[in-house]
């Protein structure tokens, strides 16, 4: 039996024959063919693993070779096999004790009795695999300051360029988030904010001068990180990630120092719909949890009447906490726990059991 048929998201023969990517959105390429997983780095250097059924899961057989080549190849293989699937279980056939020790130390595998098994919940928490400029210790050194009447950690300097990149297998594209460039992105932002489907939620329509001021203000604000979402380099939406303690949401619950929240406006019509929301929504949550490993909770404040957005968040693992009032809207406080996101492998889409409803384009 072909081992890959045990992974529902890879049963499609066309997908099996396609080349997948992993490692910072595509530095490693992966070919899946029957029981062979062929992983190659950007220089074309390859590692070939055999994949066989084992019980209710799979076994990835690791050949002899240098640890410095096999470790990134194994990380890429596990990423590719678990990127679109929440339930697959993978063990390792590994006779090299030194390599096994490295896999455990690096958070790629754990021991279960005599078995060495992949632990996706650990692997997918490693910033270096998706963040081009990952903080070496998982976050900025902590020093508390006072601002706006709030005591909170001094926030890290804003990043520039690409902050996160991930290959999305069900789309066959690399999804990335990059820091906003005010001059370069003003035209996009201006067009998106005046799009009727965005404006009805954001209520931020206006002229170029207003939008330039908005972007400059948010870029200068230490608690807000404005981002542009891209698919294979093509911009499709505006995203904001904020530290909840210093935000308007902070006084409405017991905000932790490293809680974060987010806003989104999908500006391009072609990028709206279930296939895309199952890519950008969990990827944004993944980025937030990786950007600072001390972040244990992600919060949101959708409009209480925005039923479709709330359904989307429910499917993405957010819990409903309470309704509360902001100056401009009645809102629902929602919350996603780090533990649930990684333990339930929510970076992968849930199986579709019914025809999907149309998806909303934005959240305020």
Description:
The chain is of the alpha+beta class and 364 residues long. The chain folds into two domains: 3-123; 131-363, Aminopeptidase, CATH 3.40.630. 27% of the residues lie in helices and 30% in strands. The protein has ten helices and 19 strands. The protein has helices at residues 13-17, 67-82, 97-105, 120-123, 182-193, 196-202, 208-220, 274-291, 307-315, 338-343; strands at residues 19-22, 28-33, 36-40, 46-54, 57-61, 90-93, 109-112, 115-118, 144-147, 150-153, 162-168, 173-179, 224-231, 234-243, 260-266, 297-300, 319-326, 329-337, 362-363. The strands form four sheets. Strands 11, 12, 13, 14, 15, 16, 17, 18 and 19 form a nine-stranded mixed β-sheet that branches. The N and C termini lie far apart (49 Å). Residues 354-361 have low confidence and may be disordered.
Describe the structure in brief.
By secondary structure, the protein is α+β, with helices and mostly antiparallel strands.
How are the SSEs ordered, and which strands pair?
Blueprint lengths: L12 H5 L1 E4 L5 E6 L2 E5 L5 E9 L2 E5 L5 H16 L7 E4 L3 H9 L3 E4 L2 E4 L1 H4 L20 E4 L2 E4 L8 E7 L4 E7 L2 H12 L2 H7 L5 H13 L3 E8 L2 E10 L16 E7 L7 H18 L5 E4 L6 H9 L3 E8 L2 E9 H6 L18 E2 L1
Parallel strand pairs: 5-6, 15-16
Antiparallel strand pairs: 1-2, 2-3, 3-4, 4-5, 7-8, 9-10, 11-12, 12-13, 13-14, 14-15, 15-19, 16-18, 17-18
Helix pairs in contact: 5-7
